[in-house]
Amino acid sequence: MKREMNYEMNAFYIAYRNLKKNVSFYLLYFVSAAFVIAVFFSFTSFSKSRIILDKISSDGRVETMCSTISVFLMAFVIFYMAYSNRFFLRRRTKELGIYALLGYRKADILKLLISENIYICCLAFLFGILMGALAYRGIVCLINGLLRLGIRQSELSFLDPSAVAQTAVFVAAVLVILVISNGRFLWRSSLMDLVRFEKSAEKKMKFHKLPAAAGFLMILSGYGLSLDILRGSRSVWIRAGFYQTGLLTLFLVTAGTVLFIAFFLPYVMERSKRHKKSFYTDMKIVTTPGFIYRIRSNSRTLIMLTLLSAAVLTVSSVMALTLYYPIAAVSRVAPSEIEFRIGDGMREEDIIDLAERYAPDAADTEITITDLYRVTSDSDHLPVEYSLGSSMNGAQGEEILREAGFECISYSQYRRLLEEQGKNKAADRYAPLSGNECILLKYQPDEQEEPEAGRQYVLDFANGSAEVTVKELSLDNVISFANSVGTLVVSDELYSAISRGQTPDVRVASLNGSALKDNEALYQALSDYLDGSPYLQGHSHRINELIYMNSSTFLLIGFLVILFFIAAGSILYFNNRSAAEDSKADYEILEKIGYRRSKIRKIIRRQIRAFFAIPFLLGLADCIFASMVYKAGLMQNLLGSSWSQYVPVGIAVLLTALIYFVYYILTVKSCCATVWPLDRTMNCSAIGQNDELSTRI
Amino acid sequence: MRTILKVNEVTKIYTKGQKPSLHKVSFEAEAGEFIGIMGASGSGKTTLLNVLSTIDRPTEGNVLIDDVNLEKLSDSEAADFRRDHLGFIFQEYFLLDSLTVRENISVPLTLQKIPPKKIEYMVRSLAERFGIASQLDKYPGELSGGQRQRVSAARAVIKKPGILFADEPTGALDSASATELLKALYEANRDLRTMILMVTHDPYAASYANRILIFRDGRIVEELRRNRDERQKFYERIIEKVAEMDTGRN
Lengths: 697, 250
Hints:
The complex is a heterodimer. Among the domains of chain A are: about 1-200, no CATH class; about 205-270, no CATH class; about 335-545, no CATH class. Chain A is about 65% helix and about 10% strand. Chain A contains 25 helices and 9 strands. Chain A has a 6-stranded mixed barrel with strand order 2-3-7-4-6-5. The longest helix of chain A has about 45 residues, at about 540-580. In chain A, about 35% of the residues are buried. Chain B is of the alpha/beta class. Helix content of chain B is about 40%, strand content about 25%. Chain B contains 8 helices and 10 strands. In chain B, the strands form 2 sheets. In chain B, strands 6-7-8-3-9-10 form a 6-stranded mixed sheet, sandwiched between helices. A 4-stranded antiparallel sheet of chain B has the order 2-1-4-5, covered by helices on one side. In chain B, a hairpin with a 2-residue loop joins strand 9 (about 210-215) and strand 10 (about 220-225). In chain B, helix 3 (about 100-110) packs across helix 4 (about 115-130), helix 3 (about 100-110) runs parallel beside helix 5 and helix 5 packs parallel to helix 6. Chain B is globular. The interface of A and B includes residues 203, 286, 595, 689 and 697 of A.
């Protein structure tokens, strides 16, 4: 019993010494494990906090999302920890073989590995909990400020015991999984495998034309299919069905990516060696074969990282679009700060009173009442807006929502509202209308083969009829779609002819001015006054509502995205650092042959850059095409085609690029430090003294 | 004959207070010489090779190659000097595993910016001389130890260096492979006039040289010249000398 105790102490001691000796190598593993646990803990604290959930979730939607995302989160943590653990195990196979040669049983070696894992997991757990608790506070602070939840920091405990317990159980479960994985590896490997493991990695490389071509063509056709969605109603997506085409595209891109990395890239690089002029240079002759060798031996890792990169970039971009686009579209959905229909018996004075009460001292507050007159037309080729919303796809028995027709406003009213809404540039763009000219306000951009501008319609109204010509189409609607669709801006003369002696079909009040911005109190008072009318629209109100509705989704997806970055960055770091250690002898040879150290650094940088670029660039391409499909296929097009809509995608991509870049710099530094440590050892003494001497000289 | 290597009173101490690894070593060598450096482990042979090849620097004394004082070279100048004047062969071959044999041999020439066509021609003709022409498109992992060492030798010789440093080149080879390599080195020395400095434990390998420097405790304690002896005769003289020195040690 006593011997057993001593022996276990020994395993712990060896594990401790080993970690201490290789502290720089294990540091990133430890730090990334701590970060991963921190993300998990802050997520768990968040999902367990009743105080927050009560404020942001009324229908259980956030709770459902939390439990769904927690499954992904756990799967991701387990995958990452298992990957890192296996990676370090492989690095140490020879060392384990020596233990076995010395007489250690497999159970003893496993004990050693368990001890190391216990050290790392326990330390990572402690640091992770602390960092996670701080991150949780920060997140609560952020959403509290953003959504004005009114949570006092004192209401929250620093460490939620149930979240700590759940994280501890999870880390223990991860530990058990690692032990099982290590056990399987050890028991499946013979002594010979352990000692000769590193040697067995060298195999003759073969280059297959067929899968290489297939990979390239599949990716190309996947992207081609994605582009096809831009053809609108003529695209395969509409003709063959969105989901079928979506699945086919997903399959083509995913399978294509696998073949592209595993076969196409090595094949192309191998072919590039035939261009003697570019290949026989001091850089390429080293980097090209090195790249082929590495890509072949690490293709699985690269494929995994690329697909994960693509998924995460796409999710981030789609999320950014999902939030940004509706907010950008609010300028069309609710163009005035506040707008509503004036019903029967409603007095204008009441509205003015309310505005003055809730927005006093506001010199720039404008209240404009617009009278809309509905006219009909029998002309051919009427625009889609004419009958939009007049029936539910024409199905029988459905409630009729609005009468088909054009809703007319005068040019002067149109211009005035544009100016009040602060759209002065747009106001200047539209020249006054003469006689029978009109502007058609479109719901969505004109995508018809025959342009609608220039068309002529005969308008029928109570006082007669008139033929008008569409001078231009516009997306600058001044009345919200809740109150007017198929709006026609007509000349002031025609408007007075239409309105003469008639009661307007719809009267709309538009309130604008800086004091009304974010004025929830006024909005609420008006809502009460209007008895919860669905025709009440508020610009700021709508934006705040959108932020409130989407922020929890964003936050939860954010946990996954952060976790991905920690994992992907660390995997790239480990992989490159390990390759640098393996190539250390190669760099020494190059130095002896006469390569300057600056040139070798350049080689190292190029090799690492290629490894970072593949998952990033392929993931980026996937993300761009997927976002395009999402935007064109699944989102309403209210804003027309403008690159500015892709700004959030750009920001997501830039942030990703920045994070990759930081990891790249860290990896390059670490790899150079691996190849040329600070010359304290005998191996590098020559180089170190060279530096010393040259400085002295 | 032109003197191209001058070693003046070179001392190398790794740790202060410890015995020097090299102690006031001096000798000169002429172009086209094949010098063997012998001695027990720890006698300073490899340290000397490192110091002469700019990989390490002496604590005292200086080394001149073609009248260039190695001490005065910066790191980058030393790299350029190795590129233009020196070649290396090591016991562990030190080939780049991810490069084919052809690419391995080409590396030093790409560094000298030789046109690809000329590189291809030079690689082919040298590969034939070293008996590895059929292995050019293979990777080092697919070759035997002897073949790998011949690739390493071809890589060292291809740029026609002024001096070729060989550190125990036959140490990991069977006797047939060792003989083949030594013959190849001997012919390269004879035909290309490349000076060879070879560190070896093996009297048989040393017998291919025309001068032997025997080291003990960081000093040259004996020098043997082949003169006009046959290789076999020289081999016997080396054996005798080594035995004599071992006796003295007892």
